[in-house]
Amino acid sequence: MFVDSHCHIDFPDLAVREDEVLSNMDAQQVSHALCVSVNIEQWPRVTAMAERHDNVFASLGVHPDYEDVTEPDVAQLVEMAAHPRVVAIGETGLDYFRLTGDLEWQRRRFRTHIRAARECGKPLIIHTRAAAEDTLALMREEKAHEAGGVMHCFTESLDVAKAAIDMGFCISFSGIVTFKNAQPLREVARVLPEHALLIETDSPYLAPVPYRGKMNEPAYVPHVAAELARVREASVEAIARSTTANFFRLFRDAARLAGRTDQAVSA
After folding, report:
1. Cis preceding linkage at 204, omega within 30
2. Is 111 inside a domain boundary?
3. How does pLDDT run across 125-141, given as a tens digit for each residue?
């Protein structure tokens, strides 16, 4: 069985097909999915999705790209994260690719999320793009290792991956790893320790080959696993087992909700 560690199935294009999306997951042996929050305004639909389906979990956070949205403080995030289906804080982080100018507000928001994760004892879901150096620096300054978490939709260098793993973070690969021009990323995926690997779709975006250019959904996450298996010279079944175990080891509340007792794969 596979787990999609990061998706946005609450987004309108997928939510309108909710029953079909969940049915497709089941047909492709995708047992669970983590529906990830991008802002406070839309968070209720994330939790509602998780409440309707036992195999869907929720997160709580404000994406670094979102301007002019509710800016929660630490206390608000901790209080809201007490929702019984919330298993993580995020997605949060830094993105210097899409936005320019004085982005200190992004860094303040990221610090707030790290502090909330530490306080409520839930792992972080971190987004970083064109901002790896600052992302790692803030993680160190704010003691993100005390919360742990995942660097989602990873596209950075091996050195960045190793630095995150040293802080207790997992590295999650999306459909990007299947793209023709992603050979450097495949080299990173090839050498990382098994205990640090996760897989995701980031749907409705970044559909893997052979669906590239189409709307993505959790049912396609086995294609990410298959590419990891190819580059690591492992079986798809082995990648499924390890990434599923890693997911439930990292997201402890998800393991509890699912009745799982998985432990981390040995390094």
Report:
1. yes
2. yes
3. 999 999 999 999 999 99
Q: How far apart are CA 6 and CA 150, in angstroms?
A: 10
Burial of 74 (0-12, 13-18, 19+ CB in 10 A): middle
Sign of torsion, CA 143 149 131 68? Answer: negative
| 21-62 residue pLDDT tens | 999 999 999 999 999 999 999 999 999 999 999 999 999 999
pLDDT above 90: residue 259: yes
DSSP reduced 3-state for 118:
helix
Do residues 63 and 36 lie in contact, with contact meaning Cβ atoms separated by under 8 Å? Answer: no
Tell whether 52 is covered by a domain.
Answer: yes
Q: Which of 216, 198, 199 is nearest to 24 (CA)?
A: 216
What phi-psi label fits residue 103: left (phi over 0), alpha (psi between -120 and 50 degrees) or beta? alpha
Nearest-angstrom CA–CA distance, 6 and 231 = 22
Give CA 237 to chain center in angstroms: 21
Q: Which of 135, 138, 166 is nearest to 152 (CA)?
A: 135
Contact (CB, 8 A) for 249 and 255: yes
Domain that residue 239 falls in:
2-258
> Looking at the 3D structure of the chain, how many domains does it have?
1
Q: What is the CATH number of the domain that holds 42?
A: 3.20.20.140
Residue 173: pLDDT band (50, 70, 90) is: very high
CA 28 to chain centre: 20
Structural tokens at position 121: 């004892």
In a domain, residue 168? The reply is: yes
> What is the pLDDT averaged over residues 101-105?
92
pTM of the model: 0.96
β-strand partners of 151:
126, 171
Nearest 5°: phi and psi at 172? -105, 130
